[in-house]
Amino acid sequence: VQLQAFGGGLVQAGGSLTLSCVVSGRTFSNYAMGWFRRIPGMEREFEAAIGWAGDSAYDVNSAKGRFTISRDNAKNTVYLQMNNLKPEDTAVYLCAASGGAQIPAGSYEYDYWGQGTQVTVSS
User: Fold this and answer.
1) Cα–Cα–Cα angle for 87, 60, 41, rounded to 5 degrees
2) How does pLDDT run across 38-47, given as a tens digit for each residue?
């Protein structure tokens, strides 16, 4: 399974970005998908996950209320809509695929990872 993330960039605080992650190599609809972010010197942080049927979960400290995860199984793509971005959201955002848990929140539950896309939020 290959995952490729797009859509990162530089945005001012309060702005929005939509990240996309295209999956190839296996049946996309069989996988739960997740978004994590990585800040230099820190562990990957869970942001959001979506099951194959569309149910979702969010990190309560950062993503909940500002980020929305969605998927289009026909396009083999998962999205992360990010609103009201803050400078502390600056990170590399990674998408991941899990063939196991329904809505996995732990990085250890994911089987495949993309290379990430940089999001930089200026104050």
Assistant:
1) 50
2) 998 889 999 9
